[in-house]
Amino acid sequence: MAGTIVIGAQFGDEGKGKVTDFYSDKADLVVRYQGGNNAGHTVVVAGKTLKFHLLPSGVVQGKRILIGAGVVLDPRVLKKEISDIGSKGMDLGIDPRTHIIMPWHNLLDEGREELRTTKKIGTTKRGIGPCYADKAERIGIRFEELVEEKRLQQRIREVFPVKKAILEKVYNIKVPFGENEVFDEYNALGKEFRKYLCDVSLEVCEALENRKEVVFEGAQGTFLDNDFGTYPYVTSSHPISGGVTTGVGMPAAKINRIIGIVKAYTTRVGFGPFPTELTDETGEHLTQKGNEFGTTTGRKRRVGWLDLPMLRTSMRFNGFTELAITKLDVLSGLKKVKVCHSYTVNAKEIKYFPYSNKGLEKAVPNYREFEGFEITGKEKKYSELAKNARAYLEYIEKEIGCPIKLVSVGAGREDTILKQ
Ligand code: GDP
Ligand code: IMO
Ligand code: MG
């Protein structure tokens, strides 16, 4: 039995796509279990860049890929991703319980953001929040309904007039499509995708019983978790490791490996607290060298130093069994590299992330400074990394209390160093 979860330890975009691809070579199944096409996961193989929003990154290694019940699925995006990858050899299963993003969800997402006078979240406008809200409200449309004409028609008939009224009367947004139009398009998509219907919970649990390897690819990051992130500046699902059990329908005890993906510094897209944010020339170095522009929306990512109070808290929420540090090469060339080791809040030193944004506003980061280092891109072994780079990594390891097993020094699959 071997279930491995790949988790974003920070605010997303840590390199989950790259690490999932790397560890998918030995996997039998690669599974997405939360979030939707708000995610943007990049895999670079033989100089070719592939970006996925919905399909698990394991598709690159030709593995069977599954979309679990906890995902919200936009069928238009699925159609495009399948066509981009070419369906040749693609082996996909979708859980019947998966909720469907309907075109009104995108409009509601935009409308809600427009109406927020303060506390705009800066969502990806992919309809994620409104779709999860419908699920919680028990009026969502599930994949099992999308693929059955009569049931789909009945559900659209029930839901469409309500959504149209809300959009037009509350949000003042003219709905540019009619009920029949939506039915025709989504019924056609449902017919096309019917072949992917699969009880993902059953398939995953049987695979694990039969000692198969399953990689669970998390989306977003720990501090975007709906409960444990910097609420309300969060997403609507559960990116922390616990999300895998409810997102797949499986017991936690079946997971034996939880990999925390940590970018060697911090980035964030959208609004919300960011104690170690840099807006100076060092920030500019990270933005440019790290090419820190969103994979999904193209927005410039905010950048800052690595934050250990955040990562210690991430360790507590997720129970990482190992860490993968990515984008170490981006720090190369800086004279000094800083790490926030604690905060001072009301004249008191604290080592964890405050539970509220109110606390975070008062948090002043305390930094430890490291000498800079160069990464040449030729390093293949951990021992070949510059001494100062190793000192930086070993400090992180010690402070978080979790071993680093992988260090990434470039976007390509080959730019990956395993640490014994
Ligand atoms: P994800 O959402 O966690 O999968 O991460 P994204 O794909 O959104 O963002 C990570 C970006 O960094 C992508 O463009 C990757 O190709 C790139 N990347 C991943 N690892 C490394 C690395 O070690 N070095 C560099 N320079 N780029 C990397
Ligand atoms: P991956 O999987 C980074 C952010 C958005 C916004 C907030 C809520 O590529 O790491 P949403 O559309 O989910 O309602 O937006 O969450 N966000 C991400 N930031 N990486 C992601 O995914 C993200 N998915 C959502 O920018 O601040
Ligand atoms: Mg991303």
TrEMBL record:
GO molecular function annotation: adenylosuccinate synthase activity; GTP binding; magnesium ion binding
Reactions that this protein is recorded to catalyse: IMP + L-aspartate + GTP = N(6)-(1,2-dicarboxyethyl)-AMP + GDP + phosphate + 2 H(+)
InterPro entries linked to this entry: Adenylosuccin_syn_GTP-bd, Adenylosuccin_syn_Lys_AS, Adenylosuccinate_synth_dom1, Adenylosuccinate_synth_dom2, Adenylosuccinate_synth_dom3, Adenylosuccinate_synthetase, P-loop_NTPase
Role description: Plays an important role in the de novo pathway of purine nucleotide biosynthesis. Catalyzes the first committed step in the biosynthesis of AMP from IMP.
Keyword Amino-acid biosynthesis: no
Gene name of this polypeptide: purA
SMART domains: Adenylsucc_synt
Binding site for substrate: T295, T296, T297, G298, R299, K300, R301
Cofactors: Mg(2+)
Residues binding Mg(2+), per UniProt: D13, G40
Cofactor note text: Binds 1 Mg(2+) ion per subunit.
Biological processes, Gene Ontology terms: 'de novo' AMP biosynthetic process; IMP metabolic process
Catalytic residues in the record: D13 (proton acceptor), H41 (proton donor), K135
Enzyme class: ligase
Keywords annotated in UniProt: Cytoplasm, GTP-binding, Ligase, Magnesium, Metal-binding, Nucleotide-binding, Purine biosynthesis
Stated name of the protein: Adenylosuccinate synthetase
Oligomer and partners: Homodimer.
